[in-house]
Design brief:
Blueprint (H helix, E strand, L loop, with lengths): L1 E5 L3 E5 L5 E5 L6 H14 L6 E8 L2 E7 L5 E2 H7 L4 H15 L10 H11 L5 H13 L5 E3 L8 E4 L2 E4 L6 E3 L1 H13 L7 H25 L4 H17 L3 H18 L10
Antiparallel strand pairs: 1-2, 2-3, 3-5, 4-5, 6-8, 7-10, 8-9
Helix pairs in contact: 3-7, 4-5, 4-8, 5-8, 6-7, 6-8, 8-9
């Protein structure tokens, strides 16, 4: 088998038959059956996602063999190696996200419950801001649409004829606008390379990408901009609690700005 990728939780290999093996490091061994279970839920919901064919153990390490996933470039790699395609890639991601949100699930965990737990656990955020985020979330409409909740440039695989989302461990059933708010924050904020030139290029690319993604999604689902804006505070608050470093600092600054603009009161929810 051929190694094609690595993260802090797992290594990824291409098997001789073309399927993909995700082999977990020992510290995250318990994630293997959990992720396989999520895969089954996504299949039941009709989501086009990698399918977990079997659980395996190799040299004492648990793994999942996936089918329906081809080797390709991460969105991050695509944008860095072919920056002239950044607009196309951003629109492609918005279209992929819109297609996902057409799927419904009664099995996946609740988005509202997960965001609530994340807000309550976000001790880096002032208590008053967490309370406002919870009050705002309470006013937002629920749904049963499939949401990925972890879309960023390393969780999108790009092919010449399309794209695919990977790493579904945070998938929920809920309101698509919470998922879009999450994606926008993760596409907008993040760590920087050390080189000044690289930092300038990356920040410029981020700005172009997330704005193009948002513009395309709003074209596909017109009339949602006001309600989408209301999701930002609760999602940013919860996300700040599970991020570190520069991205956490950016999210905390964003939460502070949103609280200040709100006057400390939750904005009223629209009809959606």
């Amino acid at each position: 088998m051929r190694k094609i990728g690595q993260g802090h939780k797992s290594e990824v290999f291409e098997l001789p038959d073309g399927r993909i093996l995700k082999l977990f490091v020992p510290e995250f061994a318990s994630l293997a059956p959990t992720e396989a279970g999520f895969s089954a839920m996504l299949q039941h919901a009709g989501v086009v996602a990698p399918r977990a064919d079997e659980l395996v153990e190799i040299d004492g390490r648990p793994g999942i063999v996936f089918s329906g996933l081809r080797t390709g470039r991460t969105l991050s790699g695509e944008v860095r190696s072919r920056p002239w395609l950044i607009l196309r890639a951003a629109r492609k991601l918005a279209e992929l996200h819109d297609e996902l949100h057409a799927c419904r699930s009664g099995e996946l965990p609740s988005q509202r419950e997960r965001i609530t737990d994340e807000i309550e656990s976000a001790r880096c955020v002032p208590l008053a801001s967490r309370r406002l985020a919870l009050a705002t979330l309470e006013q937002l409409p629920d749904d049963d649409r499939v949401c990925h909740n972890d879309i960023h440039m390393l969780n999108v695989i790009v092919y010449d004829d399309g794209a695919a989302l990977i790493d579904w461990m945070l998938a929920t059933r809920g309101n698509p606008l919470g998922d879009v708010a999450n994606a926008l924050l993760q596409l907008r904020f993040g760590e920087q390379p050390k080189s000044l030139v690289a930092r300038i290029a990356l920040e410029g690319g981020r700005a172009i990408f997330w704005r193009t993604y948002l513009r395309r999604y709003l074209q596909l689902r017109p009339g949602i901009a006001a309600e989408l804006a209301r999701w930002e505070l609760p999602v940013a608050t919860g996300l700040a609690g599970r991020r570190e470093g520069r991205m956490q600092r950016q999210l905390l600054q964003r939460v502070e700005t949103l609280v200040r603009v709100s006057g400390g009161k939750p904005s009223s929810s629209g009809s959606g």
